[in-house]
Design goal:
The protein has one domain. The chain has no helices and nine strands. Helix content is about 0%, strand content about 60%. The strands form two sheets. A seven-stranded antiparallel β-sheet has the order 3-2-1-9-8-7-4, with no helix packed on it.
């Protein structure tokens, strides 16, 4: 599913009773190697739309969970994409 354009991240998410995944927080390493945590302020579920390559260069399959998320970094709103493939149990992110 995901190639080297996406980097591994830690994600805290909520799993609903009906199987929906809701991303709540993301933790990434900054350029100095320090962890930074960001609250996901809004998200859009882009999952299960077939096999394709996204504009950020990441190739996804129909089994990939994909979220377009908004976070605030140094007072600026940024949009990131989170990817999760259940078979690999790894979250990855592109900005």
């Amino acid at each position: 599913m995901i190639d080297s354009k996406a980097k591994p991240v830690d994600v805290i998410c909520q799993h609903s009773r009906d199987g929906e995944i809701i991303p709540l927080r993301v933790r990434v390493k900054d350029d100095e190697g320090e962890y930074q945590t960001y609250k996901i302020q809004e998200y859009k579920d882009m999952s299960h739309r077939g096999t394709r390559e996204n504009p950020d260069g990441v190739f996804v399959t129909n089994n990939t969970f994909e979220f377009e998320c908004a976070i605030t970094v140094f007072g600026q709103r940024r949009v990131i994409r989170l990817y999760y493939e259940p078979n690999n149990t790894v979250w990855k992110m592109t900005a």
